[in-house]
Amino acid sequence: MRLENRVALVTGAGRGIGRAIALRLAEEGADVLATDIDPELAEETASAVRKIGREARATQVDVADPAQIKEVTAMAEQEFDAPLEIMVNNAGIQLLKEVFDVTPEEWDRIVDINARGVFFGMQAAANAMRERGRGTIINMASIAGREASPLYAPYCATKAAVISLTKSFALALAPYGIRVNSVGPGIVDTDLWDKQDAVLAQMKGLRKGEPKAQRIKQVPLGRAGVPEDVAGTVAFLASDDADYITGECILISGGLVML
């Protein structure tokens, strides 16, 4: 119960990694405001949190809209009658496309969600936390932020931006007692990865499942990650056990990418 009675806000909490994070934080004792672009999925996560025995609320948020992010950080305190202490900027999208084919609209959308959304998510959380001199922010980066790919160029760029922004905010917020870190998952077994596998298989003339299997073969630990692998690291960073860690990106890739 490292996070007992703390209030956490998780964006993109409706499925996959975001849902696993919300549940793990609740298991550690936190009350959770689950947000997602899909309000039904957000409510399903909130319901699962309540079954664990913690308080939970759900609301629809498009992180590409700074006004909505600002509003929801204020909502966290109102709903739980306690200050926001944990902010997890998890919401994000992928784009799998050759660099020659990316449109300006696709570029703008992925930047708006993955980079702009994280920036203003951190800004809103920082404004809610700094007067109390306490809080922690965790951002969802990726091993893609440390790599390059001709098929994921905009995605790689936005995740590199998350890593850089994490460092800048860590420096800016350290005087207020607020820690800022990010996590960088590798291959994580989610519905999103299955969709990407299907697209890659079609692009490369392979059977469905082959691209994923080939990638997993490169992982030293010999398996794909699961959302709970990421959630455990986020819970650690949110806790006092990580009290002397800020500005870092912890890679969760089974050894696929090492720094």
TrEMBL record:
Coiled-coil regions listed in the entry: none
InterPro entries to which the protein is assigned, alphabetical: KR_dom, NAD(P)-bd_dom_sf, Sc_DH/Rdtase_CS, SDR_fam
Keyword field contains Lipid metabolism: no
Database matches in CDD domains: SDR_c (cd05233)
Pfam families: adh_short_C2
Broad EC category: oxidoreductase
GO molecular function: glucose 1-dehydrogenase [NAD(P)+] activity
Keywords: Oxidoreductase
SUPFAM superfamilies referenced in this protein's UniProt entry, alphabetically: NAD(P)-binding Rossmann-fold domains (SSF51735)
Record EC number: 1.1.1.47
Domain Ketoreductase intervals: 6-186
Oxidoreductase found in the keyword field: yes
Recorded family membership: Belongs to the short-chain dehydrogenases/reductases (SDR) family.
Protein name: Glucose 1-dehydrogenase
Species per Swiss-Prot/TrEMBL record: Rubrobacter marinus
